[in-house]
Design brief:
Length: 97
């Protein structure tokens, strides 16, 4: 299914909300991390915060994209979203040990 620009923007906005909620959820689990895993947790969490900031910047680009660069901006947002998801999976591995 091909999404219109407005549908993609709506989904992107929802993604930003989900990312923020996930980040808050992960931060709430901070006290559960002990020992050697704590340093890795802090490093990955910092990376996730940076990725969230990048995702928000890409969303701003998306909101202001002109027709001639829409596909490029859309692809850039999708890549930033995937990057955040991968970081979240990496962080999740700490809790599954």
């Amino acid at each position: 299914m091909i999404m219109t620009k407005e549908q993609f923007k709506a989904n992107a906005s929802k993604t930003i909300d989900e990312v923020s909620a996930k980040l808050n959820e992960v931060k709430a689990k901070k006290e559960a991390v002990k020992g050697d895993a704590k340093e890795k947790y802090e490093r990955i969490l910092k990376g996730l915060e940076d990725r969230k900031d990048a995702l928000e910047e890409k969303y701003d680009d998306l909101e202001n994209a002109a027709e001639h660069n829409w596909e490029e901006v859309k692809t850039s947002f999708s890549a930033a979203s995937e990057s955040f998801k991968k970081g979240l999976e990496e962080l999740g591995s700490i809790f599954s040990k």
